[in-house]
Design brief:
It is elongated, with a radius of gyration of 19 Å. Helix 1 packs antiparallel against helix 3. Helix content is 52%, strand content 8%. The chain has one domain. It is built from 3 helices and 2 strands, in the order αβαβα.
């Protein structure tokens, strides 16, 4: 049994995604009045790509080589080019960004809560259920 299973890797990738999204949202909010600033967003890979990556990393026997050497959570930062909300060419919608910020905070709290629960379970196992 692996100590750090796919659950821990998925939670780690979720925290990486949330952190990246927080940085992008913060940049957008900080540049809300910057002329010609184009809002950025974080996108994730499609389900098909995530499934294929998961299947590629699956090993049927521990003696098989693991070829997955790069760590990637499939997230990328994209800039919205052809959108303008303000007369100065800025494409930041402050209401949308504040909503995204609150949503991301809830997501982050849920992931950290789940990660804490997994570590508590491990701690319980190590103590022998006491």
């Amino acid at each position: 049994m692996e100590l750090f299973s796919n659950t821990f890797r998925n939670l780690e990738n979720s925290l990486d995604y949330s952190s990246m999204k927080q940085k992008v949202i913060s940049q957008n909010i900080a540049n809300v009045d910057t002329p010609n600033y184009k809002a950025k967003n974080v996108t994730t890979s499609s389900f098909k790509e995530a499934l294929q990556a998961s299947m590629d990393s699956y090993r049927t026997d521990q003696r098989h080589f693991e070829f997955s050497t790069t760590k990637s959570n499939g997230s990328a930062i994209v800039t919205q080019q052809n959108v303008t909300y303000n007369n100065n060419g800025n494409s930041v919608d402050i209401d949308k960004e504040m909503t995204a910020l609150a949503t991301n905070q809830i997501y982050y709290n849920a992931v950290t809560d789940r990660l804490s629960g997994k570590f508590s379970s491990l701690q319980n196992v190590i103590r022998g259920g006491k």
